[in-house]
User: What shape does this take?
Amino acid sequence: MVAITTEMTPAFASVGPSALAALVGGPLEAPVDISGEVGWVGLAAAAVLAVTALVLRRLRRPLPAAGLAMAAAGMVAVAIADTDEAGGTLHVLGIAAAAAGAWAGRVLRLPLVLRPVLVVPGIAVTVEAMHLADRSTVVWPTVIVASVLAALVADADESLAGSAVGPPLLAVSIFGMYVTIPETGQILPVLVVAVPIALVGAPLCLARLGAAGSGAIIALLAAVVAEGGQARAASIVGGLAAVGVLALEPVARRLVPGAPAWPADWRSPRILALAALQVVIVLVMSRVAGLRDDLEGATVIAVVTGVLGLAALVVMLRDVERVPGDG
Assistant: This one.
């Protein structure tokens, strides 16, 4: 487990060789508390993202780079505040490959059902690089599910681009992962850095996840959830399922022919309803499905909750004209 201290002194520049070695070369030798260093990593990444988005606002707004910022800051944060399992060269290369695969699927305009194929190699390398005890039953189910999630999240983020709510919705998901997996040594620093970056999305509306960013952050989260949840397999199910509406939105949109575009204002009733639905789904996935002792029961709960969430989204899309004040 990781302890959060209250020390918030400027320490971003003190990220030493041991932290960088943990990121790209090998694990740390001893646990390190989450302190001001991790908080500053998140704030620095959010500031760089916001400034870049402002500079490039005439070219792309919102800037599709929040997912990349989350993944990069998350890897650095884990390297600083991790247990003795903090990534490695293959871990970093896998996340980069997942980002490239998700980006290629978008650029090539592949059908949604084919895009996960391009993400599988990167996520496979990322998850395989982790220290997993029961590899045969953890690695490939996690890889396959995460690859599908990466494609779905990228598609949902593009659909919600105007309001830039993809990053905060994903931050809610990461919180759900944190409260469901038994070992939180890696997911907690990722959560800490993700929150300020998410705010560059909504309410600032400067950045969204982006296709490459969706692949990168989902690859990182899949590896962290598999690592932290291996002591209770149901928590891996609940953690991955906590992606919630970001995985369901593309499916719902395809079930409603001529579905209207999402509003560009994150304060609109439809976007707020979507956020409320995300909170409910994440709550059930993380605190009900993810806490069960049996894998089968957790899977059933996750599937049933997903179906109900999908039905709610379909109704939301079909009955858009009944939502007053929407723009």
Notes: Confidence is low (pLDDT under 50) at residues 1-32. Strands lie at 63-64, 207-208.
